[in-house]
Amino acid sequence: MAIEVGAKLEGKVTGITHFGAFVDLSGGVTGLVHISEIADNYVKDVKDHLKIDDVVKVKVINVDKDGKIGLSIKQAIDRPEGHTPPPPRERSAGGAGDRFPRGGGDRGGGGDRGGRPFKQGSGKPPFGKPSFGKPSFEDKMSRFLKDSEERISSLKKNTESKRGGRGAKRV
Q1: Could you tell me the CA-to-CA distances from 110 to 88, 118, 135 in Å, in that order?
Q2: I want to staple 33 with a disulfide (CB 3.0 to 4.6 A). Which of 12, 43, 67, 71 is the partner?
């Protein structure tokens, strides 16, 4: 039986990992249901939704040249017309998104290298380059060098003022 993209099949869960579940389709063919394709809501642990030997209905969402089959449980569910899945969950305080500050750097924060937002009417895209497309390696390197030089100078300023030590001056 040929596995085609868009086909809805039944399969048996044969393995569970932290990133998804392996499902055995007919004929000994195995595909992967990624954790993001298990349910419409946020899935923290695959084991909360699936167990080994569960029979699940899946939809084939891609078949790679090397034979890997991508499956989806949430897309296999027949929904009435006009039904929309719930919106993505907002990040809670203290999540991974809070570890990296917005602005500056190469994290897409939308600002100049000092973390300040660009002036709307300036007409100049960041770093003198058009704003479309990916930045070149040279652009990334120059941005990295400038950022690291600014950080080093900031650290030097902060540590030089504290070098005198605490307490009385030495004679």
Answers
A1: 23, 7, 14
A2: 71
Q: What is the 3-state secondary structure (H, E, C) of the chain?
A: CCCCCCCEEEEEEEEEECCEEEEECHHHCEEEEEHHHCCCCCCCCHHHCCCCCCEEEEEEEEECCCCCEEEECCCCCCCCCCCCCCCCCCCCCCCHHHCCCCCCCCCCCCCCCCCCCCCHHHCCCHHHCCCCCCCCHHHHHHHHHHHHHHHHHHHHHHHHCCCCCCCCCCC
Q: In this predicted structure, what is the pLDDT of residue 83? A: 60
Per-residue model confidence as pLDDT tens digits over 112-124:
455 555 455 545 5
Cβ 59 vs Cβ 72: under 8 Å: yes
What pTM did the predictor assign? Answer: 0.48
Residue closest to 150 by CA, chosen among 108, 90, 105: 105
Query: What distances in angstroms separate CA 18 from CA 43, 74, 145, one per listed residue?
Result: 10, 18, 37
Phi, psi dihedral angles at 67 (to 5 degrees): 95, 0
